[in-house]
Amino acid sequence: MTTSSPNVIPYARQWLDEDDVAAVCEVLRSAWMTTGPKVAEFERALADWVGAKEAVALSSGTAAVHAALYALGIGPGDEVIAPGMTFVATTNAIVFQGGIPVFADVTPGSLLLDPGKIEALITPRTRALIAVDYTGHPCDYDALRDIAQRHDVALVADACHALGGQYKGRHVGTLADVNIFSFHPAKHLCTGEGGMVTTQNPEYAERMRRFRNHGIATDFRQRAEQGTWYYEMVDLGYNYRLTDLQCALGISQLRKLPQWLRRRREIARRYDEGFRDLPEISPLTVSPEVSHAYHLYVILLNLDRGQLDRGRVYKALRDEGIGVNVHYIPVHLHPFYRQRFGTGPGLCPVAEAAYERMLTVPLFPAMTEEEIDRVQAAITHVVQLHHRSEASAS
Ligand SMILES: *Cc1c(COP(=O)(O)O)cnc(C)c1O
Questions:
Q1: How confident is the model over 267-296, as pLDDT tens digits?
Q2: Against a cut of 0.90, is the pTM above it?
Q3: Domain 257-393 indexed as CATH 2.40.30.170
Q4: Domain 18-254, CATH 3.40.640.10 — does that match?
Q5: For residue 330, how far is its CA from the centre of ligand 1 (angstroms)?
Q6: pLDDT in tens, 85-101
Q7: Any alpha helices (H) in 300-346, and if so which ranges?
Q8: What is 122-138 written as a DSSP string?
Q9: Which mutation among 160, 193, 325 tests ligand 1's pocket best, with the greatest number of atoms within 8 A of CB?
Q10: Is 360 or 5 the better-scoring residue by pLDDT?
């Protein structure tokens, strides 16, 4: 989505202004390339934005999930419950830590982790639940918190889709014990690659800062300030640092988040209205208790209506220059999970059935009015055409 042919409208695209470029150039001319003052500044800015006590920057959203699970002490043999409908990075991090992913199904309509399906999966080895705010719709955190408390397990929010969202007036980023964001160019803010974990727990934040720097208790800048060469590696960590260059970009991008969120919601409203009278498709449902962050706009094709075929609709839209996509192939259907954990079809029937019907429609703040109209017209035309041709063939 960072590069595409000029006539294709991608499903997502970053937005960069001259002030973003200037912010990066300023760091390029400074003494700090990697861990310098911009890291702490970006962490503070994002923590304040969501209203969290602590934020820890990491080199990607994936590194952020990994660090979050490390901070919670997830280790070999620990079971972690996660939805089947998510990106592989969510559950890969469980495996990085030697844990066992346990796949829970989602609610029809919203495709969010179904609180009613979790308790049957809890065992004495369960250590955490990961809620994924799929498409930018915050999960039902009151219900999930209740389950987590009753069973004494941690609650994790993979909020990579949901920066700027709210649940019952509370900000995403404050709703779980650890809350994960990504700054991949398709997401709300772009730092090239990058991620962040927000938490109310200073101990978790400290563990994640150590984890991103090889398990060393102090970072280079702290040692320079203290005039000492001495350091101790107290646990096994990684190099998961986010650079000053990237953090400067993140700080600059964050200033524009409110206006970009407004634009994302406006485009979603246009789609809602445009698709309302099309029986061939159903947009995902939205709870009145949330403010949706609209990372993605996902529609479900009503396959019972004239045997609309997702593969053919996908191809027809691509041919018209509409960069539709599919988010996601259920994680438990991937060969790695089938082979390593014996997962497969039937484990999460709602997620699997939705996968067969879903398409992600282009949505990004830089979309022009003309592009929104083009997307809507093409989708309307293609689904009606396929609906009719199938109906007349049968
Ligand atoms: C993007 C994403 C991630 C990973 O983020 P990266 O920055 O690409 O590593 C994790 N979980 C979900 C749900 C995502 O969408």
A1: 999 999 999 999 999 999 999 999 999 999
A2: yes
A3: no
A4: yes
A5: 15
A6: 999 999 999 999 999 99
A7: 310-319, 335-341
A8: --TTEEEEEEE-GGG--
A9: 160
A10: 360
